[in-house]
Design brief:
Strand content: 35-45%
Order of helices and strands: HEHEEEE
Strand order of the largest sheet: 1-3-4-5-2
Distance between the termini: 13 Å
Shape: elongated
Radius of gyration: 16 Å
Number of helices: 2
Helix content: 10-25%
Length: 129
Protein backbone atom coordinates (compact mmCIF):
# COMPACT_ATOMS: atom_id res chain seq x y z
CA UNK A 1 0.00 0.00 0.00
CA UNK A 2 1.31 3.43 -0.95
CA UNK A 3 2.21 5.90 1.78
CA UNK A 4 0.88 9.46 1.80
CA UNK A 5 4.31 10.68 0.67
CA UNK A 6 4.23 8.21 -2.24
CA UNK A 7 0.76 9.40 -3.19
CA UNK A 8 1.89 13.04 -3.01
CA UNK A 9 4.86 12.28 -5.25
CA UNK A 10 2.76 10.26 -7.71
CA UNK A 11 0.05 12.91 -7.95
CA UNK A 12 2.38 15.72 -9.04
CA UNK A 13 0.97 16.89 -12.34
CA UNK A 14 2.20 19.14 -15.12
CA UNK A 15 1.07 20.17 -18.54
CA UNK A 16 2.22 22.65 -21.14
CA UNK A 17 0.03 25.07 -23.06
CA UNK A 18 0.82 27.48 -25.86
CA UNK A 19 -0.28 31.09 -25.39
CA UNK A 20 -2.17 31.76 -28.59
CA UNK A 21 -4.29 34.79 -29.61
CA UNK A 22 -7.57 33.26 -28.35
CA UNK A 23 -6.24 33.37 -24.79
CA UNK A 24 -4.64 36.83 -24.84
CA UNK A 25 -5.94 40.32 -24.14
CA UNK A 26 -5.45 43.57 -26.07
CA UNK A 27 -1.87 43.80 -24.69
CA UNK A 28 -1.11 40.39 -26.26
CA UNK A 29 -0.61 38.87 -22.80
CA UNK A 30 -2.42 35.93 -21.27
CA UNK A 31 -5.78 36.89 -19.72
CA UNK A 32 -5.70 36.62 -15.92
CA UNK A 33 -8.97 34.67 -16.02
CA UNK A 34 -7.51 32.12 -18.43
CA UNK A 35 -4.49 31.79 -16.17
CA UNK A 36 -6.72 31.11 -13.16
CA UNK A 37 -8.81 28.61 -15.13
CA UNK A 38 -5.71 26.65 -16.14
CA UNK A 39 -4.38 26.77 -12.58
CA UNK A 40 -7.68 25.55 -11.13
CA UNK A 41 -7.79 22.76 -13.71
CA UNK A 42 -4.37 21.44 -12.77
CA UNK A 43 -5.21 21.75 -9.07
CA UNK A 44 -8.31 19.62 -9.65
CA UNK A 45 -6.37 17.00 -11.64
CA UNK A 46 -3.64 16.86 -8.98
CA UNK A 47 -6.16 16.47 -6.15
CA UNK A 48 -8.08 13.77 -8.02
CA UNK A 49 -4.91 11.84 -8.82
CA UNK A 50 -3.99 11.96 -5.13
CA UNK A 51 -7.35 11.04 -3.59
CA UNK A 52 -9.17 9.28 -6.43
CA UNK A 53 -12.33 10.98 -5.17
CA UNK A 54 -14.60 13.72 -6.48
CA UNK A 55 -13.15 17.14 -5.61
CA UNK A 56 -14.38 20.72 -5.77
CA UNK A 57 -12.38 23.89 -5.32
CA UNK A 58 -13.43 25.83 -2.22
CA UNK A 59 -10.81 28.58 -2.10
CA UNK A 60 -7.66 30.03 -3.53
CA UNK A 61 -4.95 31.68 -1.53
CA UNK A 62 -2.70 34.43 -2.76
CA UNK A 63 -2.21 34.14 -6.48
CA UNK A 64 0.96 36.06 -7.33
CA UNK A 65 1.27 37.26 -10.92
CA UNK A 66 4.99 38.01 -11.02
CA UNK A 67 5.16 39.06 -14.68
CA UNK A 68 2.99 39.32 -17.80
CA UNK A 69 2.80 36.22 -19.98
CA UNK A 70 3.19 37.28 -23.62
CA UNK A 71 1.54 35.57 -26.53
CA UNK A 72 3.74 33.26 -28.56
CA UNK A 73 5.21 31.54 -25.51
CA UNK A 74 4.66 28.26 -23.72
CA UNK A 75 3.52 27.99 -20.13
CA UNK A 76 4.14 24.92 -18.00
CA UNK A 77 1.75 24.46 -15.09
CA UNK A 78 2.82 22.25 -12.19
CA UNK A 79 0.48 21.11 -9.41
CA UNK A 80 1.79 19.62 -6.17
CA UNK A 81 -0.01 18.60 -2.97
CA UNK A 82 1.38 20.61 -0.04
CA UNK A 83 -1.14 19.78 2.69
CA UNK A 84 -3.59 16.93 3.32
CA UNK A 85 -6.43 17.19 5.81
CA UNK A 86 -9.36 14.92 6.59
CA UNK A 87 -11.60 15.99 3.71
CA UNK A 88 -9.59 18.81 2.15
CA UNK A 89 -6.18 19.32 0.67
CA UNK A 90 -4.09 22.16 -0.65
CA UNK A 91 -2.49 22.13 -4.08
CA UNK A 92 0.29 24.57 -4.88
CA UNK A 93 0.29 25.55 -8.54
CA UNK A 94 3.27 27.11 -10.29
CA UNK A 95 3.13 28.50 -13.79
CA UNK A 96 6.44 28.78 -15.62
CA UNK A 97 6.90 30.99 -18.66
CA UNK A 98 8.97 29.31 -21.33
CA UNK A 99 10.20 30.87 -24.54
CA UNK A 100 9.45 28.72 -27.57
CA UNK A 101 12.88 29.02 -29.12
CA UNK A 102 15.22 29.01 -26.13
CA UNK A 103 15.79 27.08 -22.93
CA UNK A 104 14.78 30.03 -20.75
CA UNK A 105 12.10 29.19 -18.19
CA UNK A 106 11.00 31.42 -15.31
CA UNK A 107 8.34 31.25 -12.58
CA UNK A 108 5.62 33.70 -13.64
CA UNK A 109 2.62 32.88 -11.44
CA UNK A 110 2.20 30.95 -8.21
CA UNK A 111 -0.78 30.23 -5.97
CA UNK A 112 -2.52 27.62 -3.88
CA UNK A 113 -5.94 26.05 -4.17
CA UNK A 114 -7.93 24.27 -1.46
CA UNK A 115 -10.14 21.45 -2.65
CA UNK A 116 -12.62 19.28 -0.75
CA UNK A 117 -13.48 15.66 -1.46
CA UNK A 118 -17.23 15.15 -1.84
CA UNK A 119 -19.73 12.32 -2.26
CA UNK A 120 -22.60 12.08 -4.74
CA UNK A 121 -24.70 14.36 -2.51
CA UNK A 122 -21.90 16.95 -2.50
CA UNK A 123 -21.16 16.33 1.18
CA UNK A 124 -17.51 16.27 2.36
CA UNK A 125 -15.94 12.84 2.70
CA UNK A 126 -12.64 11.57 4.06
CA UNK A 127 -9.87 11.66 1.49
CA UNK A 128 -8.06 8.69 2.98
CA UNK A 129 -10.15 5.88 4.44
Amino acid sequence: MATINDRIKDSKTSFVRAVFPGSTNHYNTLFGGVTLKWMDEIAFITATRFGRKKFVTVSTDRIDFNMPIPGGHFVELVGEIIKVGTSSLVVEVSLFLEEMYSDEKVLAVKGSFTLVAIDDDRKPVKIIN
